[in-house]
Amino acid sequence: FVDKTEIQNIHWIEFVYYKQKELDSTSWKKLLPDSSNFWYTIPANKYGPIVLISYEQAMEYCAWRSEVVSKKLGKKITYRLPTMAEWKDIADEI
């Protein structure tokens, strides 16, 4: 399955909020988007796509989302980034 929309800024803010509770102050700050990215903090943009995040940040989000959704559904769900071939196939369908 493929999500039909990008991860929105509001989802990223939720992710950082929950991760900061379990990580020390230095670690959770590494989850913040590029320092030049103020886009995600503007209330009018809360449903826009998150931008200027690293591959590592995206992978951390996938792991967190997998854990949260698995707990909610009571079964193992794994989120991941698409492979290059999958990305091309998805892009061709759009």
What's the arrangement of secondary structure elements?
Layout: H1 9-22, H2 25-29, H3 55-73, H4 84-93
Outline:
globular
The computed structural class is mainly alpha
Give average pLDDT, whole number.
Answer: 86
The largest sheet, given as strand count, sense and whether it forms a barrel, is:
none
Radius of gyration, whole Å:
14 Å
List unreliable stretches of 5+ residues: none
Order of helices and strands: HHHH
State the assembly state of the protein chains: single chain
Helix content: 40-55%
Q: How many strands in all?
A: 0
Strand content: under 5%
Distance between the termini: 15 Å
Number of helices: 4
Q: What's the short version?
A:
Helix content is 51%, strand content 0%. It has 94 residues and is mainly α.
Task: Please characterize this protein's 3D structure.
51% of the residues lie in helices and 0% in strands. The longest helix is centred in the C-terminal third of the chain and has 19 residues, at 55-73. The mean pLDDT is 86. It starts with 8 loop residues before the first helix and ends with a helix. With 94 residues, the protein is mainly α. It is globular, with a radius of gyration of 14 Å. The chain contains four helices and no strands.
Give the key terms.
94 residues; mainly alpha; 4 helices
